């Protein structure tokens, strides 16, 4: 026996018209025209080689084959509706997996996780991080929190949470801390600056924002990850550069200082969500993150 089915659009139109006993009512339910439903029913009748409706006064009624198909399609579509609802509910009940770079996770998100989970208990947040570059399109994550620059890809829904601001920071443990506090941004050109290989453009961006020549920069010790870079700065090993949210708590606690201020880049901290993962949770998380970032600015 052939496993081919008639057009599903035609079956859908027929099922609605048979269930509602009206082509007009079916058209209204399916948000199409009366003529569109009629054409789909004619297509189905031609495919099956039999009439499914006959005229009955000003309306229509089902033939015997039509009544048999009504029962079968009604049961099939109801089972499909139930299954889809169950799948959707399981998706909502499943943990929401957030991809997040380790430095952002350790220095900004983890201190706020307890409050996030209290305020968004239905999110059931699960964090995924990686030593390598995060892939927002990975099927293993529901969303990814990243610093990045537009334009955004068409296959992703990107929530812009905050403009990226970067700036130099150092610790009071630095042997020349007091002297450096008195120097201008230009004075940093004489320093062997701590930097991260994952964000090589950070120092040039900030120096240029201050109207200085990036070619005059002297880079010292480099670190693979921002987390280690900032730990080195906190230990007094030199002047580092970082996004403002990642050092906001350290600045408030006095663990780090930022005497030269922060400058905007072209980037944003953004929540990337695949277009296939739209169940409302990403929007709630994005709004929470945006509000929290506003408080730490």
TrEMBL record:
The keyword Chaperone does not apply. The keyword Oxidoreductase does not apply. Residues 6-63 form the HTH lysR-type domain. One of its GO terms (biological process) is positive regulation of biosynthetic process. It holds the Pfam family HTH_1. Coiled coil: none annotated. GO terms for molecular function: DNA-binding transcription factor activity; sequence-specific DNA binding. Keywords: Activator, Amino-acid biosynthesis, Aromatic amino acid biosynthesis, DNA-binding, Repressor, Transcription, Transcription regulation, Tryptophan biosynthesis. Belongs to the LysR transcriptional regulatory family. This is HTH-type transcriptional regulator TrpI. It comes from Pseudomonas matsuisoli.
